[in-house]
Write a structure and sequence with these properties.
Helix content: 25-40%
CATH class: Alpha Beta
Shape: globular
Largest sheet: 5 strands, mixed, barrel
Radius of gyration: 18 Å
Strand content: 25-35%
Number of domains: 1
Mean pLDDT: 95
Number of helices: 7
Structural class: alpha/beta
Order of helices and strands: HEHEEEHEEEHEHEHEEH
Distance between the termini: 40 Å
CATH architecture: 3-Layer(aba) Sandwich
CATH topology: Rossmann fold
Low-confidence stretches: none
Number of strands: 11
């Protein structure tokens, strides 16, 4: 007998469906963001409408409102658990959701970056816990190349890099950081490897764009979030457009 999972999206959402819940319109893709100021700008832009059907926990969900292929914007707390849960739910509900992108902030491990820089991510070192629940052990996990290329077309001139995904923000040592740099990473955050791993396992193409909010200097970290909201909103819009480009071309 195979070792099956003891609790699945069908157990959770199956109960909800039997109780009368319906998911409403399912999106072609979902873009994950993690900063409250970004959520406020998106809400105030008038380009999205609140979605109460596909929410996870107490997160804010927004759906594009322009009548084109629908894309969900999931405004979550930092970290990967709620993101992984929602992706599982979307896949259980059908095949409509093909794409996912994380658009968040990151620390730069070297002084080559400036605060406010946007970086596309081609791969992520796996120091998170979530990716290990979805993929066999490996040093890193890759972004989907087609979706990443589509996003790059919408953000010309943006550089690409490898990131380092950790589970929590305050438990990385200097030796951990040096090992990540040795492994080719130049940024650090808490979601990307998890997103890529879940996407690969359940058949959702995933990519990421990160905005630098912290830079490692010789004498400590330079931190300034004030220049990150604008680039983050721009990257969210580009991710929506990239997903729609691929749908139109398919």
């Amino acid at each position: 007998m195979s070792d099956e999972y003891v609790y699945t999206p069908e157990d959770f959402l199956g109960w909800a469906i039997q109780s009368g819940w319906t998911p409403g319109t399912l999106p072609i893709g979902v873009v994950y963001t993690f900063q409250a100021p970004v959520t406020r700008v998106l809400v105030e832009s008038g380009k999205f409408e609140e979605n109460r059907e596909l929410t996870v926990s107490n997160a804010t969900m927004l759906m594009t409102s322009d009548g084109e292929a629908p894309v969900l914007i999931a405004c979550l707390n930092p970290g990967a658990a709620a993101m992984a849960t929602q992706l599982e739910h979307l896949r259980f509900l059908g095949d409509e959701t093909r794409y996912a992108a994380a658009v968040g902030t990151a620390g730069a491990l070297t002084a080559d970056y400036r605060i406010g820089d946007t970086v596309l991510i081609h791969s992520a070192l796996r120091s998170d816990a979530v990716s290990n629940a979805y993929l066999a052990p490996s040093a890193h996990v890759d972004a989907d190349p087609e979706l990443t290329a589509a996003l790059a077309k919408r953000m010309p001139g943006v550089t690409t890099a490898r990131t380092w995904t950790v589970s929590v923000p305050y438990r990385s040592t200097r030796s951990d950081l040096e090992a990540a740099i040795e492994g080719g990473a130049s940024l650090v955050e808490m979601e990307v490897a998890s997103l890529f791993a879940v996407g690969q396992r359940i058949g959702i193409s995933a990519t990421a764009a990160l905005i630098v909010s912290d830079v490692a200097r010789v004498d400590g970290w330079e931190v300034d979030w004030s220049d990150t909201t604008g680039p983050t909103v721009h990257a969210v819009t580009a991710a929506v457009d990239a997903m729609r480009d691929l749908v139109e071309d398919s």
